[in-house]
Amino acid sequence: MNAQFPAPADAAPAPQRPVVLIGPMAAGKSFLALHMSKFYGYDFVDADQVIVSRHGVIPKIFAEHGEKYFRDLEADTIAEVLRDPDHANAIFSVGGGAPMTPSVREMLRHELVAYLKVDTETVLPRISGNRTRPMLQPDPERRWQELYEARRGCYEELADITLDGTRNRPVAEIGADLEAAITRLRSGAPDTTQEVQA
């Protein structure tokens, strides 16, 4: 487990930190984060949306500057959000490739991380024919599978909470699982990775 809970009895309470939501492209991370904002009162922060608001659409960034430039922007954005006390109550959704950047991976080792696990059957309708995700071109289904296999071990390693998003589970069910897991961990649950599945 990466985030350290609970603190020793004689230590000052640790300040609240954002919950970082990781997982593959098209898993539904942003949708889940929005749901948590609406129904559980968290702030919603999405790393890709922050980047787009400042630098323009992501496909254009890739086309004009390349992936490394984008990953540097992404890492800087994630670091900025994590150190901003205004986002302490946020569900913070990051891009599918973000944890593969070493500096981001190191940051996330010190945060409360929830991994939204999905399967190809759930994601396929969301990516079929997609032309807006640079990393999925030119064959979205094949590229998604390749990327997920390459990244899954990293997601699993970083996860304090693993959420079952397979079989098109309703976001309300996944959100309830996430809220229950966050509550357990922040109240001093045993120091083990929380896997929440149907």
TrEMBL record:
Listed GO MF terms: ATP binding; magnesium ion binding; shikimate kinase activity
Protein name per its UniProtKB record: Shikimate kinase
Subunit field text: Monomer.
Gene source species: Kocuria dechangensis
GO cellular component terms, semicolon-separated: cytosol
Residues where Mg(2+) binds: S30
Pathway the protein takes part in: Metabolic intermediate biosynthesis; chorismate biosynthesis; chorismate from D-erythrose 4-phosphate and phosphoenolpyruvate: step 5/7
GO biological process: amino acid biosynthetic process; aromatic amino acid family biosynthetic process; chorismate biosynthetic process
Function (record text): Catalyzes the specific phosphorylation of the 3-hydroxyl group of shikimic acid using ATP as a cosubstrate.
Residues annotated for ATP binding in this entry: A26, A27, G28, K29, S30, F31, R133
UniProt enzyme class: transferase
Binding site for substrate: D48, R71, G96, R151
Keyword Cell division: no
Cited HAMAP family: Shikimate_kinase
